[in-house]
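Support request, please re-run this one:
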Amino acid sequence: MRHVIEKDPVLRVQEITSFGHGVLDLTLRGPSDATVFVSVRVTTGPNETAAVVEARPEATYKKLDAAVCWALARVVEKHAAQALHDEAAGDSL
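Re-run finished. Output below.
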């Protein structure tokens, strides 16, 4: 999933702060150079796998259009879902 996100032409990865064992934390630059923290947590159970994507502004004191966080989280969510689907199907990531 990390490599797919890094190659996405829309997402501008600024920094990856955590990666491994179902965890991906990164900072993305959005439109108008808004900086957004994105956190992805993947959990697996006996019958299903779930990915939770959260996004928030980097600086809480700055005013940020909520649409930027939502839009970046949505793109990451699509990549996470595709990566999990590919892994379940046995495709290489």
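The chain has a mean pLDDT of 84. DSSP finds two helices and four strands in the chain.
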